[in-house]
Amino acid sequence: MSALYLAARPAPVDAALQSALAHDLVDVLLAAAGRGGAAWHKDENGRPVMAATGLAVSITHTTGWVFCALLVTDDPAPRLGIDAEILRPHPRASKLAARYFGPFEKEKVTADPAPRAFFDCFTKKEAYAKYCGDGLSRHLKSDDTAAPDFEATRGVRFLSVERESVLLALCLPAGCEPDIYEV
Q: Which of 47, 78, 154, 162 is the most buried (most CB within 10 A)?
């Protein structure tokens, strides 16, 4: 059994204030999960890491918003990745897709020029990179999240959530079907 706790808060544009809010949201989610006070730190890549087993946390921000997700599971070392983007026209979407997306992602963006298609691919890429914990640059060109076998071959699954014109992508372990709680 597993549970996924999600929090979204409007945030100032200032990076330091967003970081402070994100730290507060981790504590809010831990309290909501009945794990208040659980220790966590940031690793050498700036990724939040829980000290307790069975917990994974991921943080992201986009203009005006901070998002946090907490996965509580029986797995002693779970992983989790999250990314969010405001759905808006992106003037360089086709150029970025041509340069960094795999064939299935490019096909998806070409078939549907609406911002959601581009950001669906991009947020999944970012969420997967956070799930792996080794940075976006390693996964940007090499991983095609729209490939039909991507989730099965990588042992992951994606969830997409749209709130107030923001697209949120979560990358979870394959087979993880958590109860979801928005805090």
A: 78
For residues 55 and 77, is the Cβ–Cβ distance under 8 A? no
Residue 132 and residue 171: Cα distance in Å, rounded? 9
Q: Could you read off the pLDDT of 124-159 as tens digits, one per residue?
A: 999 999 999 887 677 667 789 999 999 999 999 999
Domain boundaries, the chain: 2-182
Alpha carbon distance, N-terminus to C-terminus of the chain: 19
Non-local (6+) Cβ contacts of 93 within 8 A are 109, 113, 115, 118
Residue 153 main-chain phi, psi, to 5 deg: -75, -25
Which residue blocks in the chain are alpha helix, DSSP H? Answer: 15-32, 93-100, 103-111, 115-132, 136-139, 150-154
Spatial distance between the Cα atoms of 166 and 116, rounded to a whole number of angstroms: 10
Q: Are 7 and 182 in contact (CB under 8 A)?
A: yes
Residue 49's Cβ-count burial label (10 Å; 0-12, 13-18, 19+) is middle
Nearest to 89 by CA among 108, 114, 107, 110: 114
CB atoms within 10 A of CB 35: 17
